[in-house]
What we know:
single chain, 7-stranded mixed beta sheet
Amino acid sequence: MIDTIANVSDLEDQHSSGAYLKRDITIVRGAGATLWDDRGNAYIDCVGGQGAANLGHCHPAVLEAITRQSAELITCPELFHNPVRAEYQAALCQVAEMPRAFLCNSGTEANEAALKIARLKTGRTGIIATMRGFHGRTMGALSATWNKEYREPFQPLIPNVTHVPYNNIDKLREALNADTAAVIIEVVQGEGGVHPAQDGYLGAVQDLCHTNGTLLIIDEVQTGFGRTGYLFAHQRDGVQPDLLTVAKSMAGGIPMGAVLIGERVGELPPGTHGSTFGGNPLACGAGLAVLKELTVGASGPDVPADGNLITRARELGQQVIDHFRANLSENAVREVRGRGFMIGIELRGKVAPILKALQERGVLALPAGPSVLRLLPPLVISDDDLWQAVTIIEETLNNAF
């Protein structure tokens, strides 16, 4: 029996791949926006499962759905029809206002599929992505990812991928050509430092894509399912992607991803792509529960009276951003950015010691590059916990630099 943090960490480090830098903490339990370590210490979670816990940890509706579904059928490949999958695909397509969906297991798989679909449907090979963009770590998605530290060890990657500055429509116009199959872009660059698209930018990108016969891929792996105060972040800008990639929070923590497929793309030919686990009934059951909580109305002690978690995230998130802008010291902070419950604080120093200091005070947070503090609290976080975390972050930053 392993009963100490030293034994757990030693065992995991002995057999883990080594690909992850782990923090000196062992998480054993979660509920809502609270996590507990193996010593009984509680933490306010602003990591949010790296964006996979928009409904928090062990949400009752998700638990009920996966418990019920696991007793009926867990896996069923898309060789066969399945009622849970059929219901989920219909519901997902309805809320995304897109006619078809390819179901998979993660965000990088979704982006990989979207890039393949774009090349197939256009007969072109060129892909345009943006500087600071992050789209995953498999070979195609990695090719579209900007960070050279991620890309260079694995070169040569797929050819004909170009990166242009984010929020610069002139540079995108210059890069488009007759061989451009797709432009892939985030509404808010998460890993790249929490940089939102400027007003009008996404609409201009869409217009250029349509004029050029290029497909628009919008990557909402991190921004989807209420994170920014809209069910999908692009809805704020009134644009319609040709391919929309989603994952992370779509099944309440169960691995799941999808590519939503628009009218300009249409149905895929049989055999074009596939996934053994994609669209499995367990994930689809969890996904249905998530959509119901986000679109029909949630319930619980930390949920607003109208059950609208998304509106709450939009309004309360802006209050937090405004508070930080007004109260964080300019000696510590360069800029505060974000939308809804996706917040980035660009520091004048390194973020690593801040993350450690926050953990010691009971708040777990994320980096977004070497100098940006990223906050992704669950949408169900209580007002008290949220403002307690804000106070701790404010005190920590103002006393750090």
